[in-house]
Design goal:
Blueprint: H1 2-5, H2 9-20, H3 28-35, H4 39-52, E1 55-59, H5 60-68, H6 71-79, H7 84-90, E2 98-102, H8 109-123, H9 126-133, E3 135-142, E4 156-162, H10 164-178, E5 184-187, H11 189-197, H12 201-208, E6 212-216
Parallel strand pairs: 4-5
Antiparallel strand pairs: 1-2, 3-4, 3-6
Helix pairs in contact: 2-8, 3-4
Length: about 220
């Protein structure tokens, strides 16, 4: 089953788009353009995911009829000018007659969404580099949300010296990408060692829970 889901880079990109924006509807050409994928490849992957049950289609004409019944929405639509590209796409015969959207009733929806979002952090090679560019991390631990531990006090734990503004921007970007708030804690090395020496309850709760140690320059294990 997982092999069928993650059989290509195009499929992963499409899954990520839909699972991060589960309430949005997308046209085939819109997806192809935004993700920089070949149109035929995009269409094939969408059809596979629809057959699998993760995506569903909505007729564009029915969608427009529903919007027309709402005077507020209709009025807003009349105020928006279509771009030249949008006009060209709208005239493409047979291509833009339906939207694709996540099927929230799919039995594995939450599990697949969680897997995609967490894998994104673990497998994006530049994530650690981004953290390192914000300062000098000595310890980086993923916990809480990233390891399915709802009782954990933090999702991300960092030890070291950081540029506060850069780190906050990085965390904000991460939250936007993940679609949720990230609980994080930052300590300087001196504070970390002190808390460790006095068996600080908060620190040891982090260290003894289920976790993924990404950076470890202080000999945690």
């Amino acid at each position: 089953m997982l092999g069928k889901l993650f059989g290509s880079n195009a499929r992963v990109k499409i899954l990520k788009l839909f699972l991060i924006h589960p309430d949005k509807k997308f046209y085939i050409r819109e997806i192809s353009r935004d993700l920089k994928l070949q149109l035929n490849s995009t269409r094939r992957e969408l059809e596979n995911l629809e057959k699998f049950g993760l995506l569903m289609t909505i007729d564009a004409e029915d969608e427009n009829k529903e919007k027309a019944l709402d005077p507020i929405v209709s009025d807003e639509l009349t105020k928006k000018k279509k771009t030249k590209r949008a006009k060209i796409e709208a005239r493409a015969s047979g291509q833009e007659k339906k939207y694709y959207q996540v099927n929230p009733g799919f039995i594995l929806f939450e599990e697949i969404k969680s897997l995609i979002l967490k894998a994104q952090i673990l497998y994006e090679e530049d994530f650690i580099e981004k953290v390192q560019k914000t300062g000098k991390p000595k310890v980086m631990i993923l916990s809480g949300f990233f390891v399915n531990d709802a009782e954990a006090s933090v999702d991300l734990f960092l030890v070291g010296r950081f540029n506060k503004e850069k780190l906050i921007r990085l965390i904000n970007d991460l939250e936007e990408e993940m679609g949720r708030e990230i609980n994080y804690t930052v300590m300087e090395v001196k504070e970390f060692k002190y808390r460790k020496d006095i068996t600080d309850v908060f620190l040891y709760d982090i260290l003894e829970r289920r976790k993924i140690i990404v950076i470890n320059e202080l000999g945690l294990i």
